[in-house]
Amino acid sequence: YMGGWYSGPQYGGLVIGDQGNNGGDCGKKVDGAFRRMQLVSSAAFSLGFGGNDGQKTMGVIAVLFASAFAAECGAARLQCLLDTGNIVRAETYARNLYENFPKGGVAAEIAFLSGNAASAAGDYHRALACYRRGGELHPDGVFGMHLKGRIADMNYILSFIDAAPEMLASAETIYRELAEKSADPAIRCEAFYQLGRCCELYGRLDEAVGYYRRTLDNAAELRRSGRVPETIWCWRAARHAIRIMTHSRKAKDRAEALQISESLEALSLPGIPADFAAMKNEIFQKGMENKTR
Fold first, then answer.
1. Residue 48: helix, strand or coil by DSSP?
2. 23 DSSP β-pair partners
3. Rounded-to-integer distance, Cα 168 and Cα 156, Å
């Protein structure tokens, strides 16, 4: 029998026919109901899949946030250990952090702090490796400049420990780059001082004095901008410059040494030795004794 069941719309294996006078109306009603049910089931299906994807995405985001938070906390704890002088614990903790967070937004800071911990512990080779790693992760900006400065410092120290003059030359090159390219007077201040030390070691005394003077000039620039320069670089620059010039036989060098001492005193920096005036007079006296011999 091939009745009216085959004349209606077909859904899967089911044939809906129109029987009698009301068959057409019944088919239309069923057809509309199935269409609405299809929309509801499709929406539910899509929502289920989308919900699964969203949960996965939120899970990944949560893991990333947790990792970043752990790295930030680790860096803060390491800085606290360094600030309180717990060098041994800081160095051990820094090794763990360095291995657990080799990449990411905080990895460069961890590498920098790990280098500080290794340097404080006297492991300058490891410190140099950490600073280089930090420089690879964050080569730009002020932070990148500070990393370059620390790399130069390690090269400077290791040039004596390893008797490697090429490391001293590398340090001088980096210091010169920082002095010429940095827009921060604080970075230039330290770079000029370190350049003076390199030149003095090479026997270029006039050039060394010039860099020591530029150290004090940048410190004065910092003072004018409302910032306090680091005393250690200014004090050392003035001391080395005065020592060089007071051993000179030229009267103009002695006058310039006096100007440098006055420039240092004009900075009104905290932490300058109280006996600076006595030390300055002693240096001048030794200079005069050398000239009479």
1. helix
2. none
3. 5
Task: Quote the tokens at residue 260.
Answer: 């440098």
CB 172 within 8 A of CB 146: no
Task: Tell how many helices (H) and how many strands (E) occur in the chain.
Answer: 11, 2
* E strand residue ranges, the chain: 10-11, 14-15
Quote the CA–CA distance of 57 and 186 in Å, as a whole number.
44
Per the CB < 8 A criterion, the answer to whether 130 and 149 are in contact is no
pLDDT tier at 10, thresholds 50, 70, 90: very low
Please give the structure tokens belonging to residue 274: 């109280």
Contact 115, 130 (CB under 8 A): yes
**Residues 198/175, Cβ–Cβ less than 8 Å:** yes
CA separation, residue 121 to residues 28, 86, 163 (Å)? 86, 10, 20
CA separation for the pair 251, 249 (Å, rounded)? 7
Residue 49: CB atoms within 10 Å:
10
- Identity (one letter) of the amino acid at 123? D
Per-chain mean pLDDT for the chain: 76
Q: Would you say 111 and 137 are in contact if contact means Cβ atoms under 8 Å apart? A: yes
Which two tokens mark 68?
A: 């970043």
**This prediction's pTM:** 0.69
Q: Distance from CA of residue 291 to its chain's centroid? A: 49
